[in-house]
Write a structure and sequence with these properties.
This protein has a domain of 81 residues: Four Helix Bundle (Hemerythrin (Met), subunit A). The chain has 117 residues and is mainly alpha-helical. The protein contains four helices and no strands. The chain binds flavin-adenine dinucleotide (FAD). The site of flavin-adenine dinucleotide has 20 residues, from helix 1, helix 3 and helix 4.
Length: 117
């Protein structure tokens, strides 16, 4: 069956946005439970990603580079790195991960104090 590259790219951009923003909002000092939750989320994201070919490829990348969930900065740097692994295999330029923190903003402010958006 013929694929549709435009739709696949659109899905990819939406998925990466959610993925990186999730890392950007992960706690600096997560509990063991929070770290385990993020790890499960990442493995399930990889397993259930709607593009099957992408999912199986991404699962191979996770085998090589297991999720880092010990802190926000570790998770954000790891996510940037694995996205670059996908960029490499699709022939896209490498993204500079040095300034990844602060780049993805959920627009939800500080949820602890700001209850309304
Ligand atoms: P995208 O790669 O979608 O990135 C969106 C934006 O994020 C970029 O414009 C840039 O601002 C920023 N960005 C780029 N690199 C990084 C980085 N390393 N860290 C943080 N931010 C970054 N497509 C395929 O054709 N084959 C595949 O096997 C495939 N596997 C995928 C696996 C997953 C898990 C996901 C989420 C997507 C996959 N895709 C795959 C889609 C592909 O990665 C792109 O999303 C799609 O090609 C659109 O690319 P883009 O150039 O618009 O930028």
């Amino acid at each position: 069956r013929l694929g549709n590259e435009t739709l696949k790219a659109e899905l990819g951009r939406a998925a990466w946005k959610l993925f990186h923003t999730t890392m950007a909002r992960f706690p600096d000092q997560p509990s063991e439970d929070e770290s385990a939750a993020l790890k499960s989320y990442i493995y399930l994201f990889a397993r259930l990603y709607p593009c099957g070919e992408c999912a199986s490829h991404f699962q191979k990348i996770l085998k090589k580079y297991p999720p880092q969930t010990s802190s926000r900065s570790a998770a954000a740097a790891w996510a940037c790195h694995v996205h670059n692994e996908v960029n490499r295999s699709t022939g896209k330029p490498m993204f500079d991960c040095a300034n990844i923190e602060g780049l993805y903003d959920c627009g939800c402010g500080d949820d602890e104090t700001e209850k309304k958006s």
